[in-house]
Design brief:
- By secondary structure, this protein is of the alpha/beta class.
- It has a single domain, classed as Rossmann fold (3-Layer(aba) Sandwich), CATH 3.40.50.620.
- It contains six helices and five strands, in the order βαβαβααβαβα.
- It has a five-stranded parallel beta sheet with strand order 3-2-1-4-5, sandwiched between helices.
- α1 links the parallel β1 and β2.
- The N and C termini lie far apart (45 Å).
- The model has no long low-confidence stretch (mean pLDDT 93).
Length: 180
């Protein structure tokens, strides 16, 4: 085990572009974990995964991608399909993805995990930190709570994503977030 490794859950290439740099500046070696069963449809999932591959190649960073399995997401949000964006369904989705990230960290003997989701100005840093810390306790891990959007992080991630010509999505990911 390397004590400086951190498993970073990546929701898309754009969101993880700058966090990988920031984690390295903080002394960590990021391992990127792509687990997003919420993304709909499968061709959207593939576009986001392809962008993540380009990004990880650019950063010379290890990428671990789980198979696409939307059943995990749909089973977890039963009864919450009509929740508004940023509501309980989203919290359940964050919990699902961060639990799987923590499980993967344990499998890889990595003691620290985090997520790139928090770089979005549309996501609640405090809520994600609470979810991450609660999961960390269950798995005896550390959740690294970094608000990547601070110090122009969101601007920096977008600049890097644009320079790499990464695919840019226009909705959060799940089929319910497509309704506007």
């Amino acid at each position: 085990m390397s004590d400086n490794k951190v498993l970073i859950h990546a929701c898309c290439g754009i969101c993880s572009a700058y966090p990988i740099i920031q984690l390295r500046e903080m002394g960590y070696e990021p391992v990127v974990y792509f687990y997003n069963p919420n993304i709909f449809p499968i061709d959207e999932y593939q576009k986001r995964l392809d962008a993540e591959k380009i990004l990880c190649e650019f950063h010379k960073c290890e990428l671990i991608a789980e198979d696409y399995n939307q059943i995990d997401f749909f089973n977890s949000v039963v009864g919450f399909e009509n929740e508004p964006e940023r509501g309980k369904r989203c919290d359940i989705c964050f919990d699902l993805r961060l639990k799987k990230t923590a499980q993967k960290a344990v499998d890889l003997n990595i003691k620290i995990f985090t997520t790139s989701i928090v770089i979005s100005p549309h996501k609640n840093f405090s809520k994600l930190t609470e979810i991450g810390n609660n999961i960390a306790k269950i798995y005896n891990l550390q959740y690294l709570a970094v608000d990547f959007k601070k110090k122009d992080g969101f601007l920096k991630t977008n600049r890097l994503a644009n320079s790499l010509n990464l695919y840019r999505q226009n909705y959060c990911g799940c089929k319910f977030s497509m309704r506007k």
